[in-house]
Amino acid sequence: MQFDLIDTAEAQIHALGGRMTSQRRMILRALIECADHPTAEDIYQKVKEKNPALNLSTVYRTLRWLEEHGLVNSRRFDDEPRLERFDPVVQKGEDHFHFRCRMCNQIIEFDTPLVNTIKAEFVDCFSGYVESANLILYGLCSECLNNSKE
Amino acid sequence: MQFDLIDTAEAQIHALGGRMTSQRRMILRALIECADHPTAEDIYQKVKEKNPALNLSTVYRTLRWLEEHGLVNSRRFDDEPRLERFDPVVQKGEDHFHFRCRMCNQIIEFDTPLVNTIKAEFVDCFSGYVESANLILYGLCSECLNNSKE
DNA sequence: TTGGTTATTGCAAATGATTTGCAATAAGAA
DNA sequence: TTCTTATTGCAAATCATTTGCAATAACCAA
Q1: CB neighbourhood size of B92 (10 A)
Q2: Which of residues 53-82 of A touch B (CB under 8 A)?
Q3: Is there a contact between A47 and A26 (Cβ–Cβ < 8 Å)?
Q4: Is the distance from CB of A108 to CB of B126 less than 8 angstroms?
Q5: What is the Cα–Cα distance from A138 to A75, expressed in whole angstroms?
Q6: What digits encode the pLDDT tens for the residues A78-136?
Q7: Neighbours of B140 (CB within 10 A)
Q8: Which residues of A touch B82 (CB under 8 A)?
Q9: Record: contact B110-A122, CB cut-off 8 A
């Protein structure tokens, strides 16, 4: 099943004039298998277990290329602003937003139509044109909230 | 009028166990005079014109201290993720959100109650507790949109 | 007003995620 | 298979931000 995604990605990469390499395949697979918005370093470590020859800068370059070509998204969170986290576009829907638990650092994805309402509201007030929105909520997830109640 | 704000800040700093120094005064004044979310470097340059002895790390330490003590807010924008921008809390309301024009890089502040609705929505779905929200819209401001229509 | 305590400063060096130059390698078209 | 050139590995560079340390200056108490 992941293999379908990899095949799809390969087709997309070719369509974009890129080449599918063993490194790219491994990086994509790791990215897709990682449930939770891995960093470049996370992916590097994961792939390295099986293939120690991989270089970290290859991971960075690959992720950047995939991002520039729309196959991957990236985010940063306010509690680790220098760290980029990645997200395959393939398997996820379009716009989704994020909640980050400040205790366990878990990231929860959610969706809401209200952001579109806010975009429209903004255009009503200021004119202009809104291309994208980045919304992140910070707080405690339900488990951490319960744990902290003891 | 800015002087009132500086006096207020001085009182707050003392209340927090800090000391008001000439550097802090200058940094605060520059921050308040800068309309538009300056970076540490912006503030450094501005203060340096009058007082060349100031050191950049003092600017960073001061801004960080002020932020940790709630007198200053900071943000990063997706188009310059490594650069921290600062915002005096004193003169601005509580929660406000931001729009950033991807052409002229202008930052527009706005407010909307809908973010609270989204917070509530999130809690309904996932339980947990939402402490804060960071919403940034990206696009073209009205001027840049008009300019690009020619 | 004067000390004495200690928060704050300036300076230089460290950090750390990410990027880049370059020569070597390998993917894919012919 | 061969040729072109996109991609890799490696090491070094970036660059905003932080940190250690000795010197300085705010502020509290006498």
Answers
A1: 11
A2: 76, 78, 81-82
A3: yes
A4: yes
A5: 14
A6: 999 999 999 998 666 567 899 999 999 999 999 999 999 999 999 999 999 999 999 99
A7: 20
A8: 82
A9: yes
In angstroms, rounded to a whole number, what is the distance separating the alpha carbons of residues A90 and B68?
Answer: 39
**CB contacts, 8 Å: A116 with chain B:** none
CA of B90 to C1' of C10 (A): 28
Residue B28 pLDDT more than 90? Answer: yes
CA distance B16 to chain A (A): 23
Q: Classify residue B52 by burial, with Cβ atoms within 10 Å: 0-12, 13-18, 19+.
A: exposed
- Measured CA to CA, the distance from residue B96 to residue B132 in angstroms comes to 11
Token digits of residue A89:
């576009």
**Model confidence over A13-72: pLDDT tens digits?**
999 999 999 999 999 999 999 988 999 999 999 999 999 999 999 999 999 999 999 999
Gap from B90 CA to C9 C1', in Å? 25
Residue pointed to by tokens 């319960």: A146
pTM: 0.91
CB contact under 8 A, A118 and B125: no
Taking CB atoms and an 8 Å limit, are B118 and A129 in contact across chains?
no
Instruction: Test B114 with A121 for CB contact under 8 angstroms.
Output: yes
User: Beta strand pairing status for A107-110 and A97-101?
Assistant: antiparallel
The answer to whether the CB of A94 falls within 8 A of the CB of A117 is no
A136's tokens: 């992140």
A135 touches chain B (CB under 8 A): yes
